[in-house]
Amino acid sequence: MSELIDDLYRLGDPIADTKAPDGPIENRWTKAKFDNKLVNPANRRKLSVIIVGTGLAGSSAAATLGEAGYHVKSFCYQDSPRRAHSIAAQGGINAAKNYNDDGDSVYRLFYDTVKGGDYRSRENNVYRLAEVSNSIIDQCVAQGVPFARDYGGLLDNRSFGGVQVARTFYARGQTGQQLLIGAYQAMERQVAAGTVTAYTRHEMLEVIVVDGRARGIIARDMVTGELETHLADAVVLASGGYGNVFFLSTNAMGCNVTATWRAHRKGAYFANPCYTQIHPTCIPVAGDYQSKLTLMSESLRNDGRIWVPKNRDDCEKDPRQIPEEDRDYYLERIYPAFGNLVPRDIASRQAKNVCDDGRGVGPKVGDFRRGVYLDFSDALSRMSEAAIAEKYGNLFDMYQRITGESPYEVPMRIYPAVHYTMGGLWVDYDLETTIPGLYAAGEANFSDHGANRLGASSLMQCLADGYFVLPNTIRNYLASGPYEPVAEDAPEVLQAQADVRERLDKLLSINGDRTVDSFHKELGHIMWEYCGMERTEEGLRKAIDLIRSLREEFWRNVRVLGSADTLNQSLEKAGRVADFLELGELMCIDALHRRESCGGHFRAESQTEDGEALRDDEKFAYVGAWQFSGNEAGGPDAPILHKEDLVYNFIQLKQRSYK
Amino acid sequence: MNLTLQIWRQDGPNAQGSMVTYPVSDISEDMSFLEMLDVLNESLIEKGEEPVAFDSDCREGICGMCSLMINGQAHGPEVTTTCQLHMRSFSDGDTITVEPWRAAAFPPVRDLIVDRSALDRVIQAGGYVSVNTGAAPEANNLQVRKPSADRAFDAATCIGCGACVAACPNASGMLFLGAKITHLGELPQGQSQRSARVVKMLNQHDAEDFGGCQNLGECAAACPKEIPLDVINQLNQDFLHSKKSAR
């Protein structure tokens, strides 16, 4: 065992993806599909797969594997698969169709995504993503997804942050909803056909590992409280991201890390946990009671102009009374080539900078104004109100409903908020984790977005994984099955059940003074303050201490009422917050060890003279994959860091500049 | 604001339920209705009482998970979801009743939560286009007139919350069905299964104990996504057409 570094972690052996084929990058996926073993249709009926999560990745994978003839069990904590949080994605989905003949190509989508991810994603995976992007659009259109169309009846496109071509397909401001409904319907079709069994209001609480392979899960029926054992030949986690570790985020209330964290504790490495995307266009926080933050689609930046007053004295004025010459369109000023369409990390940090400079707008929360204007008055004089309504109407309505102000009349106010997590379970080219037979898809894995996710690429990745990648890679694993049946009373199964039961009983028996939510909010404050938009060595060390003592208090003083054998929402939340309390510490350790700025990770100690993020490719061009190393009393023992060197053969590492 | 809440409490599907009164104070008008319930629940836990169980998830008005009859109206006095209903819609001193959706097809689960899986089974009966992954033609080979695309989109905005059923005196699910029938029926992709779809979905609708439609329009009035009532006309038209074509 290596020595303790920074008193926090140990260094383990390097790790590498060994499954991607060699050769020209444009041939690799084709080669992989050919090299992967086939399973003949008669044998597929003998094989079973568990899929946790029914968002874009989970439902599309369930539909596709069901169509292929495997037995699929699908799990979600909501009352219907259609409610998964992919449904709230608004802006659009990228594809390299080049319908506008504006110079787009698979290679350019690949290039933009690697650059946009600040050179911390894997070339092979990203190229494949760009390659299958076009098939996604075909598939969704065939399912009846009502994408926007022009008057000629063809598909319409718009552009998104970080790119200079219009490659984003959209369905007004509800692209995620329409894509998810498409995947959900495809999955329900398989439910009717009997190939997919859907378990709703079920929460996965443990992975069953037998002889080193993932063979099933323990799930709690959230209505009856019954702990169920489900066994299969392979397990797929498509359970989304962990942004709710910050309490306030754009995630749905139920989004949690439990599925991936339980897998991590069973041996799956967790990669780049500190990469959190802070989305620049959210409605600012209004008060302490607030339960979540609402995202305004990034597509608004196509026509809205972002500004703050040049003078601090103007911050309280009605924005319509501030003349043009007294406005600072700071993104257009600093980044003339990209203007308001700079990538999310840059737009977010610049918003923070101008607010830190005392030029924020909107109501004071504490002693600080957190808001910048997103102004449509130029667009309204250029286009009709009807044209604006056609493009953004539902977003404007949503904004007005929440704030009580009309964006047609007064500029919107926006501020960055936690949105998407680029980290997740470490997977190889086949999307297999370090536990054989355990796969991770969509936001639950780490590989495609690097340190920053470009707009309209999450929907693309989730559907790419679910419809096209996973069904082709898991086949290679399933071809060696069916695996030896696991008995319902095998020691590994009984142990997993006992662990879950013990944990639930413990949470119910503490009967302390504090509610689960109060712990969650406190954790969120710590994470936002010290592991949010800007991180420092000192702050992160402080956060680790704070989280450790908060976790200690949680297990001594949390109050969870009721019992485990009924619907008990406090108990559900308590289990999730307990996992967030462990993940939060790992995020801070990961952030602390990465002494560079890149993408969604901005280290104050690592910046250029003009305040831009400064990467350190010499030392940090790797994926940080963390291994769980057992439990000490009160929390996890020092985790072990395995580095996967990122090798760029096709794209040259460059300082990322949008100026 | 200070308010008096009268909330339906029911321990389980077969338990006897009753209305329980809770006063709440210091409610900000910027809170959503669900955040107001969060505040109530925090205070109940502190007092050692079990919190009120209710459904919610995205809290952005899009997932369709939240429900609640508020003062007898589905999602309350505004045409929106409960998560997007703000306390500025109420006045200081108001008494507000909060109940679960009521419909034979939506059996109670606990407190304000009901089981809406009947809607999933209606979709399973035919609310899709049958196309296996990988079998799709190039997207732009299929042209859709903009008016059709827009009409399909308007119908496709249904979030499956069940407010239409809860608002209907007959607890009919016809607006939900009509929305799906219209969405897929407006598009060329949906044509080959059009006749079979409407028959299968209607049969499932009836099997789930949803009531009959008398065209009262309460459903469309309560729909947070403003699905137009005429999707039910479309449904009826498609149904009649399916009978003719079967002859």
UniProtKB/TrEMBL annotation, chain A:
Keywords linked to the UniProt accession: Cell membrane, Electron transport, FAD, Flavoprotein, Membrane, Oxidoreductase, Transport
Pfam family, one: FAD_binding_2
Membrane topology: Peripheral membrane protein
GO biological process entries: anaerobic respiration
Active site: 344
Superkingdom, taxonomy of origin: Bacteria
Keyword Nucleotide-binding listed: no
SUPFAM superfamilies the record matches: FAD/NAD(P)-binding domain (SSF51905), Succinate dehydrogenase/fumarate reductase flavoprotein C-terminal domain (SSF46977), Succinate dehydrogenase/fumarate reductase flavoprotein, catalytic domain (SSF56425)
Coiled coil: none
Catalysed reactions, as listed in the record: a quinone + succinate = fumarate + a quinol
Subcellular locations according to the entry: Cell membrane
Enzyme Commission code: 1.3.5.1
This protein's GO CC annotations: plasma membrane
Cofactor section: FAD
FAD-dependent oxidoreductase 2 FAD-binding domain ranges (all copies): 49-459
Start and end residues of each Fumarate reductase/succinate dehydrogenase flavoprotein-like C-terminal domain: 520-658
Family: Belongs to the FAD-dependent oxidoreductase 2 family. FRD/SDH subfamily.
UniProt protein name: succinate dehydrogenase
Species: Rudaeicoccus suwonensis
UniProtKB/TrEMBL annotation, chain B:
Similarity comment text for this entry: Belongs to the succinate dehydrogenase/fumarate reductase iron-sulfur protein family.
Residue intervals passing through the bilayer: none
Swiss-Prot/TrEMBL cofactor(s): [3Fe-4S] cluster; [2Fe-2S] cluster
Tagged with keyword Cell division: no
The protein, known as: Succinate dehydrogenase / fumarate reductase iron-sulfur subunit
Pfam families tied to this protein: Fer2_3 (PF13085), Fer4_10 (PF13237)
Organism: Rudaeicoccus suwonensis
Recorded GO MF terms: 2 iron, 2 sulfur cluster binding; electron transfer activity; metal ion binding
Limits of the 4Fe-4S ferredoxin-type domain: 149-180
NCBIfam families (alphabetical): PRK07570.1
UniProt entry keywords in alphabetical sequence: Iron, Iron-sulfur, Metal-binding
Biological process, per Gene Ontology: aerobic respiration; respiratory electron transport chain
InterPro entries given in the database record: 2Fe-2S_ferredoxin-like_sf, 2Fe2S_fd_BS, 4Fe4S_Fe-S-bd, 4Fe4S_Fe_S_CS, Beta-grasp_dom_sf, Helical_ferredxn, SDH/FRD_Iron-Sulfur, Succ_DH/fum_Rdtase_N
Source superkingdom: Bacteria
Key word Metal-binding present: yes
Cited Gene3D superfamilies: 3.10.20.30, Alpha-helical ferredoxin
